[in-house]
Amino acid sequence: MADTGTNLPGSDLSENYEDWRRQFATDRLVVLYYLGLVANPVFIAADVLLHREYLSSLLEIRAVLELGFLFSFLMLKQRVVLFTPNVLLALWILIGNLCIAQMTVILGGFTAQYYSGLNLVFLAAAVIVPISWPTHLAAQLGTLLYYFGANFLHPQTPAGLDAAIENSFFLVWTCVAVLFSVNLYERLQRAEFQARVSERRISRQLEASNRKLLELDRLKSEFFANISHELRTPLTLSLGALKTLQNSSLNPECGQLVQSGLRNTSRLLFLINELLDLAKFDSGRAELRKRCMDLASLVRGIAADFESSQKNRVHLEGVSEPVLAEVDSRQMKKVLYNLFSNAFKFNDLEKGRVWVRLSADEDRINIAIEDNGIGIPRDQLERIFDRFTQVEASATRRYEGSGIGLALVKEIVTLHGGSISVESTLGSGSTFTITLPRGRASPDEMIGIEDEEVIVLPSFRETQQESTRPITTLPTSGGDQPLVLVADDNADMRSYLERVLSREFRIALAVDGAEALEQARASHPDLILTDVMMPRMSGDDLLKAVREDRKLRSIPVVFLTARAGTEARVESLEAGADDYVAKPFDENELLARVRNLIGQRAQERELVQLQKEKIARFLPPHLADMILAGDRDDFLKGHRVEITVLFIDLRGFTAFAESAEPEVLMAILREYQAEMGSLISEYGGTLERFAGDAMMVFFNDPVPVPDHAEQAVRMAIVMRDRSADLRAKWTARAINLGVGIGIATGYASLGVIGFEGRKDYAAIGPVTNLAARLCGEAQHGQILISGRILELVESLVSTEAVGPLTLKGFQQPVVAYNVNGLRPLKDCGSTT
Ligand code: ADP
After folding, report:
1. For residues 719 and 739, is the Cβ–Cβ distance under 8 A?
2. What confidence category does residue 765 fall into, taking pLDDT thresholds of 50, 70 and 90?
3. Given 112, 165, 219, 604, which residue has the most CB atoms within 10 angstroms?
4. What is the DSSP letter of 451?
5. What distance in Å separates the CA atoms of residue 297 and residue 317, rounded to the nearest whole number?
6. Which pLDDT score is estimated for 470?
7. Rg from Cα positions in the chain
8. With bands split at pLDDT 50, 70 and 90, how would you rate the model's confidence at 623?
9. Would the pTM of this model clear 0.85, i.e. be above it?
């Protein structure tokens, strides 16, 4: 489809399509008319060769034809209103075909071969101007009417009639084919037109938003530059004030505060300067003040700033002779400071080394800065020169930084016409290589290194030293104050928080989430106040770990974060933090929040303790704990486990109960239960229930007990010894009571049974029945154990077989074993 470039997209698509189509048709009609005007005279050759006898008549007709074409063509060119493209198309077909039909009349009617010209005209019109099938149809009807009408007006021979029929077939089907093709082509054209219109519309919208974005970007850069500039003034003044204070005589505490203020204000100024520089590059306002200078002396000077007094950390090569280059010295300082500080920042504090190699040829200078630091993953090498890019994930990043430095370095180097590249091996170190053109460097024009101040991040050394300071727990005034654990990777922030909070609390400090977790496990603080973005373990991960730890989960956790706004607050609270404080914060507000949370948690603890005491009166303590913790619901619902069940009850109790006073009975029971009860918890068993004089004890559930059968038997032996003492006392008071014990081990289903309002923890399985029956069979002083227990404790105790016993609930008689006592240590023989 030809694109005429007319006013395409608009609100009304169809109207525009019509415009476009009109123009398209006009263009094609010009071609069609040219063709007609040329073809007509060419056919005179055929007239001369084949029909010389009718030549004059034929020439007359051709003259009319040519004039007709010429007239219409003029109308087309003049764009006469009446002669629309459709009219001109119909005219072309009709003028051509009526003349051809008239020639066939002269040349013998239907048998005349010139009739083929009609088909030719139909086809040429349809191929060149494929629009408006009704126009084609009208012209075709006119043609057929004239051709058949004019020829039938003359008498026809039989051959002529045959030819008429034959010709009519060809003519009609040519017309039908032409009409279909024009119609289809037109539909295709319309669809294509609409697609193109949508495409254009989208591309215009894209262009518009692109323009808008560029404009926004420009405004942003401008705003950035302005605001950064505004920020620099107060910051510079603050720095000045702090520097003056630093030089005055201050007490050590104030001295430290001033140092911290100085460090952090310089850091802020450094960041703002970097942002300002970037904004300048963005707005195209960055200009170089290139002068000839000695790069070797610049490298030496900067290296000296980074060298520490005790260590030989910087190694220089190629700097003994001057290396002249035409560069902007202030910008080059920034480049080198950035690369040096990265080389040390992403490195070990003790073992970190940097090698600088300066080399030059006629045109170019290379500066390679190599370190033996942490290295950069291969897949990140491309990205690190992008703005705001840091290798580690932001929430757990280990090193401070903004991700601007290398982007700025690259901009400066590129503006000098140079390039920067990096090679790195993860874990071994990185080498950044800058290549710069020497420019017009001449010793006569050389300047000294300008003393213009490039504010260096003052903190990277100090911060690292600070942050590796061992964790301290400071029991500030009074040992009974609540303990607050503070986790923050920024040393200044840690000491600030310490200063604020130590007015009311004891403080423990941690440099990151991992240390905080360790600290929390060791000292179980009353509250954890944590930064979110920290190395090794972020605040989020610390919170997760605290919540997953049964012992720590109730400690309130407060996030301290630089992210302000409702969204950050909601995120923190949703993550499970108890509170959220945004930096910068008000000291009193922080204190109040911490105080409230600690108070609240203390009340909750008291409440839980009260509940626990109440519940523990009726349930085994482990179960009470578990129920209060509320985290073992599945466990309480049911599980299957191998347990050892011990049953103990008093022999002769029924007879005694019948004759004794209830008070005496109660006193005897209490004495016996207190004596046995203390042993149960000592051996890790769980007293499942009292039933009169009987007690049922579980081993290995709900508290896991390794060697549960052995523990149960050991306890039973001690119980028997104690009961012997009790019996001696009772006998002295003429009370005849003894103690029998039964023990069995096996699988049972355990869990809470009962109904709302009255629940119990129970074991379901033959093992409880067996233990109860064995206990029933045991005489005073006997400990009857099942065969399965014997297998487990055979080497521990000596036993004797009892039975076979017929026990209720067991189809086969059961052989039980009475435990005589513990074997001497070396005795590993068989049962006696
Ligand atoms: P910043 O140091 O402020 O984070 P930079 O643009 O200077 O930002 O560096 C971008 C990132 O490239 C750094 O965060 C660090 O992950 C990585 N990087 C830069 N220099 C080194 C280096 N010498 N060794 C290891 N990693 C580096």
Report:
1. yes
2. confident
3. 112
4. -
5. 12
6. 43
7. 52
8. low
9. no
Contact by Cβ (8 Å): 737, 765: no
Secondary structure of 398-444 as H, E, C letters:
CCCCCCCHHHHHHHHHHHCCCEEEEEEECCCEEEEEEEEECCCCCHH
CA dihedral 295, 297, 302, 304 (to 10 degrees): 150
Q: Is 731 in the pocket of ligand 1 (CB under 6 A)?
A: no
Q: Is the C-beta atom of 405 inside 6 A of ligand 1?
A: yes
pLDDT tens per residue, range 299-358: 988 888 787 655 678 899 999 988 999 998 888 988 998 999 899 888 887 788 999 999
Cβ pair 430, 370 in contact under 8 A: yes
Q: Which amino acid is at 227?
A: I
Show the tokens assigned to 381: 């090498």
Q: What is the dihedral of CA 476, 481, 485, 486, to 10 degrees?
A: -60
Q: Which of 103, 28, 41, 100 is nearest to 70 (CA)?
A: 41
If residue 614 lies in a helix (H) or strand (E), which one and from where to where?
helix 587-616
Separation between Cα atoms, residue 759 and residue 703, nearest integer Å: 19
List pLDDT tens digits, range 322-331: 899 999 888 8
End-to-end CA, the chain: 110
Distance of alpha carbon 117 from alpha carbon 101, whole angstroms: 9
Q: Is 57 in the pocket of ligand 1 (CB under 6 A)?
A: no
Distance separating alpha carbons of residues 525 and 485, to the nearest angstrom:
6
Mutate which of 335, 344, 370, 376 for ligand 1? The one with the most ligand atoms within 8 Å of its CB, which is 376
Cα separation, 46 vs 498, whole angstroms: 113
